[in-house]
Amino acid sequence: MDSTTLSDGVASGVAEDIPAESARRQRTRARLLDAAFDVFAEQGVRAASVETIAEAAGFTRGAFYSNFSSKEELFFALMEREKTMRLEQLNTGVAQFLAPLVGPDGAGLDDDDVLQTITHILELQSDDRRWWLVQAEFQLMALRDHTIAADYLRYHDEFFSDLTEIVVAALDSARRRFTIDPEEAVRVIAELCASGEARAVLAGDERTFTERLSESVPAILLALTERV
Amino acid sequence: MDSTTLSDGVASGVAEDIPAESARRQRTRARLLDAAFDVFAEQGVRAASVETIAEAAGFTRGAFYSNFSSKEELFFALMEREKTMRLEQLNTGVAQFLAPLVGPDGAGLDDDDVLQTITHILELQSDDRRWWLVQAEFQLMALRDHTIAADYLRYHDEFFSDLTEIVVAALDSARRRFTIDPEEAVRVIAELCASGEARAVLAGDERTFTERLSESVPAILLALTERV
For A137, which residue in chain B has the nearest alpha carbon? Predict the structure, then answer.
C-alpha cells in the first residue's frame, strides 16, 4: 500500500483539473469510506464484511475491490481522511481563536485566555465517539495481527507527529512550551480524550465531546506547559 | 453479581479457618481464573468459550458454572484479583522504597530521589502486557454491550479511586501534591502506561514494562506535581 498516494488523494480532494474518470473514482472511494465508517461503528470493525460495506455504499463487491484491496486497506484510507480532517479543524481553530490574541511581538496570554482559547478550538472538533470506538477496535485487531501492526503504527505515529507540530507552534505563539517531551505530552492529552470518550460511552454520559474535554484538557495543558 | 463477596473472597485468600469445602472452592476458582487469563490472552476475550476455559483448567463445563454464571462474571473476578494484586504491589513498593526516605517530620525529596524511587516501585509491578490486552478487549465488549457496561465501569472506577488514594498518600509523605485533580492525574498516568503497552506490542518492542515506564512515568509525575 502506498500511503503517499492515499494521502495526496484524500488531502487534495477533487481538484478541477482532475479528469472525469479520476473525479468519479474519488467520489466512489468517498462513498465507500462513508459507508464503511457507518458499518464499522454499527457492527464493529471485525464483524463488518466487504459485502456489507459495498452494499451500504450502493456498489458491488467488485467496485469495492477495484478501489481497495481489503477491509484493512480501506481502514487505513479512513484513518488518513480522519487525520487530515482533524488536523485541518485544529489549524482552523488556532488561526481563528489563537492568532488574533497573539501578535508577532505579543506578550504571553494569561491562564484564563489560554483556557478560553482551548475551549473555543475544541468546539470546532468533530464529536468523535464513533471514530474513537472504531479506531480502538481496529487497534486491537492490529495488536493481534502483525501483518497490519506496522502500517497501523506508522499512521498513528504520523498523526501524533503532525499534531505535535501544530500544538507546539500554537503554544509557541502564545509564549508557552511543554515542560516534558512535547510529543509525549500531546499523546498524554490525546489518551485523556480517548479514555474520556470510553467512560462517557460506558456511563451513558450524553454531554458532547467538547463539553467533557473542556473540563479536563485545558487544565492538563496548563499543568504540562510553562511560560517562556 | 455481588462484588463484595468476590472482593472478600479474592482479597483474603484461603484463611486457615475456612472449612475444607470453601478452601477447595477457592482453589477451583483460582485455577479457573488462571486458565481463563491464559485463554483470553491467547485467543481473545470474545473468542474464548466457557468450554475452552474449563478444559484448560482441567474441569468440566459444569464445574465452571457452579463457580461463575458466565464468562463475563469470571472476567469481573479476574479484574478484582488483578486490582488487589496491583494495589498490593504498589503498597509494598511504597513501604519498601519511599517510606525509608521520608520520616514523619522529613523534608521533601529532591527530583532525583523522586525519579529513582518511582523506578524502584515500578520494578515491583508485574509486566502487564497480557493483562492490558485482555482488559482492552473486555472494555470494547462492554462498550457495545450495556448489560456489562455498568459493572465494568464500577470496577474500573473503584480501581482508580483506590489507586489515587495510595498515590496521593505516597506523594504527601514525600511532601508533594498534584497540581490538577488527583484522580484525573492518576488516570492520565495510567493511560500513558496503557498506550505505551499498545505501542510496544505494535512495534515489537521487547523492553520490559518497567524499562519503558521508567522513561515516561517519572517525568510526567514530576510535571503534574509540586512541592508542598
Answer: B140
What ipTM, to 2 d.p.?
Answer: 0.79
Q: What would the pLDDT profile of A34-84 be if each residue is shown by its tens digit?
A: 999 999 999 999 999 999 999 999 999 999 999 999 999 999 999 999 999
Shortest CB distance from B188 goes to which of A136, A150, A188? Answer: A188
SS3 of B55-117: the string is HHHCCCHHHHHCCCCCHHHHHHHHHHHHHHHHHHHHHHHHHHHHHHHCCCCCCCCCHHHHHHH
Q: What are the pLDDT digits (tens) for B98-118?
A: 888 886 655 667 878 888 888
Which fold, A71-227? Tetracycline Repressor; domain 2 (1.10.357)
Domain ranges of chain A: 3-65, 71-227
- What CATH class has B3-65? mainly alpha
- A153-167, A189-203, B10-24 — which one is most confidently predicted on average? A153-167
Do A202 and B150 lie within an 8 Å CB cutoff?
yes
The verdict on B130 touching A (C-beta cutoff 8 Å) is: no
Tell me which of A140, A179, A213 to substitute to probe the interface with B (most B C-beta atoms closer than 10 Å). Answer: A140
Helix, strand, coil shares of chain A as percentages rounded to 5? 75, 5, 20
